[in-house]
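Consider the following assembly input.
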Amino acid sequence: MSTATDSARSGKRTEKRTAPAGARPGARATTWRGTDSASPPARTPHGRAETPAAPNRLRTALAGRPVLRRLLPLLAAALVLVPVAAALWGSGGWPQQLAVDVKTPLDDAYDWVVDHRETNPVFLYFLLHLSNWAEISVDAVTGFLLQLGWLGVITAAVLLAWRIGGAGLRGLRTAAVALAAFAVCGVLGMWEATMETLALMAVAVSVSVVAGLVLGLAAGLSDRFDRVLRPVLDTMQIMPAFAYLLPLVLLFQIGVPAALIATVVYAVPPMARLTSLGLRGADPGVLEAVRSLGAGPVQRLVTARLPLARKEILLGLNQTIMMALSMVTIASVVGAGGLGEEVFSALSTVDVGNALAAGIPIVLLAVWLDRTTAVAGQRVAEGADHEATGVRKVLHGRRAWALVAAAFAVIVPPGRRFLVEEWPELWVVDIARPVNEAVQWFTAHLATGVPVVGGTRVWADGFTTGVLSPLRDGLQAMPWWSLVLLAAVLGLLAGGWKAMCTAAAALALIGVIGVWDKSLDTLSQALAGVVLTLVLGFAIGVLAARVGWVDRALRPVLDVLQTLPQFIYLIPVVALFNVGRAAAVAAAVLYALPAVVRITVQGLRQVDAGTLEASRSLGASTLQQIRQVQLPLARPALMLALNQGVVLVLAMVVVGGFVGSGALGYDVVFGLQKSELGTGLAAGVAIVLLGVALDRATQRRPDRA
Amino acid sequence: MNSPTHDPTNPEHMTNPEHMTNPEHMMSNDRSAAAAPVFSVRDLWKVFGPKAGHVPGDRELAALPQAELRERTGCTAAVRGVSFDVHRGEVFVVMGLSGSGKSTLVRCLTRLIEPTSGTLEFDGDDLLAMDKDKLRELRRRRASMVFQHFGLLPHRTVLDNVAYGLEIQGVGRAERRARALETVAKVGLEGLENRRPGQLSGGQQQRVGLARALAVDPEVLLFDEPFSALDPLIRRDMQEEVIRLHREEGRTMVFITHDLGEALRIGDRIALMRDGEVVQIGTPEEIVGSPADAYVRDFVRDVPREQVMTVRRAMRPVAATEDATGPVVAPTATVAEAVEAVARTGAPARVMENGRCLGVVDQDGLLRVIAGLGAGREEVAA
């Protein structure tokens, strides 16, 4: 009952110092925090002194400046520590004395692994089996899909989509999406690559779903397990996909097993998290009623908790599938094959046409998978098959499945007799050449030398020399301790002491492992990306929240953009801006923008309509409404948008290593391709640390919301 | 178990000693002596908070008012030393304002909330000593509960919701569906069997909740503010439904409510709670006619007394001079009914039971009851 006590306590306190009539609720907190420090400590309940024993004058000076008050201890500590640190180790980049060579031991470890792979029991009896199993299962599924032939796969996909979508228009629409997606994959000449990707996806998703369900179930039922799992999932969620690849390559070498396991690890968190969330979020009233009827723990789980969590579990499935698709494409760097491989090799020769030919199937797969799983979720939410009548009653439950199986049996075997299994050559359209010609035309006419406006590549160059380079040089010129201090300050302001320590420690560790300058380069790109994302995102978000048709027009676009794997964003930016840091930043902005816009719109929408109406009734102008009511009240959401923007931009800037953004991302790619594990792994760790530091520096503590 | 008559903690003695002479009260005591109570609750405590177990045993802490207790120990005593019996076949209403501990109390009865201390017997079985399996068995077959917010499973049809309790018991599909269908009909939900709870109105949903509790044919039905979430008109319907079910089946019911009108309408006996304590236990007539303290008096002030009080309260002995004429009323008749009879004939009415004349009610006596001046009348009834 400690929460009840707390709330009662604070309730009493507010009562004692009722804010002046007409004060805004937001202002009240500061009002009585001010009174708190000015009044004698005896007035606090329980006679506990809550004000620090600071001199009276200082206290008055700080009254009403909560930000300064919170930072005071940290600033005091910095005042002592910084001169000492600066005197000892200088004020330039990260001091050599504080760096540790991690590259050599890592390279040694790699050599050791290479030498002992054949002999060490851990490899022989565990990892090797895992690796074999991964290889075999993916091969089996690929073989099965290719055996089935294109007709079989398309028929199965269409029928499945129709069954999940249900009778009526929605089912037909889902089926149409499936048909279009697979047909285009074939037409673009990517049938085999698509099947490889699909097979890898199928295996990865099944394993992730099972693992996620088990973890989610455990976390949903046991508080202790939840406490252990939650921070792990939190960290996994801010880890860029890129960082997962290297350790797995170390263990499994380049190839399908590494890609598969990386995908599984990357895709498990949403399933586990949402399953646990669904189990915990079940209506307590229902659970109590079930208990009152004498249901045992297993009965409760099977008949009530799991069915009540169905919606969340399906959402988890949807997200897991999308994450897996994203990772499967990125994992092409470690030999996943399939569509990602095609994009990857095309991009490395700046062959936009071929990259697009492989990219479009990825987009279509994403749309197909997202639509199908989202529709399944919708139907569950609506209570699905209620009161089926007429035709729908026939197409209900098991009968519909039987119909699907029958249709498949009727169409596929005869079809395979007449048509070859492989996608017919005649039906393949080569889009690479026309696309490349278009890109060339674009490069020649619009990329440079357009009067007045310049051109896309001119902008990119300008952005690089005008923004990115000065920012990077500025960061690298800053004394190392000032950056650590800055991280600490931001962490303290955003999240409190724990966040402060984590943020500062993460940043310091980057220096310790010797990638300080490269990380600052990545950081400069991320910062530029975040600023651009937020400016664009908030502007679009405010517009969409206020203007109905903008929101309606935007929504489907955001839906599609949010489902796309990271890799896809690289294709258009390379066409527009060539390779380089500006391209990476542009891709990052594109990648992070949908989430930021969406959170902004939701935050603004949730602002109490009554408050907004009241301000309108007082004659507030549109700008006043936005500035004085909507934005302040939506602050928690905007902070969340900032946090998400930072995490997403960083993840994408790092992937930019594929298109010449240099810095940490390039080190990872380089490490992977040249087996320079030391370099790659150090960069990978730095990416994670940078992610943690940025996340903690921007993550608002939930209980202060 | 001690007989309630000799139990020093018996609430009937504790809270209302001056009414021992009340014939109605004597009667209820006689009945309890004849048949063992269904629930027998003695000195039951439920304390939430750190080291809750210390509070009931500690005389000093136990006597503290709620706010001070919280200040001292961080604990909240939701139920404080409550004792009562629920007799077979009666509707026992626990009523109180929100936060008075009544919902906690009813949950303690099947240990949905574990009581902190006290004794609790169900049909003579020690409920607090039951292990998990026995308790589960009790919940499955002997005591079912109806909840304020229904607690229906949204993914099941009405029929499957009603059959849920039977499913938990392990009854086969065909049988439980047949029994559920009967129950659905009993609460007037025919034709809605295949709907889902989300498609029903609040009143219909609560009928499903009621049917679910009835389907397992329990000895006792527990209601936790079942109609508080419903519109007034529908609430009225549902109350009548409960009264009808009780009349038809005679099932024992424990009914929690914060609505005094509801308590008076359906309760055979009412326990009035405040801050976790039972302030008074009695029939509606006793509560309204002889409030135990100022709190209860304040509570029942606006009750239309003539509809709750019986003629026993307005009765005076037959005077020697009176002849045996005038209208006849039963001792269980309300004052309102006697008023009507007296006004119609213009003469005092005789209260007759089994051919014996218990006393006479005249205009003066009736008016005194309606005005709330009934004191000084009861002793003659003995």
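The longest helix of chain A spans residues 121-165. Ask yourself how this observation constrains the way the partners meet.
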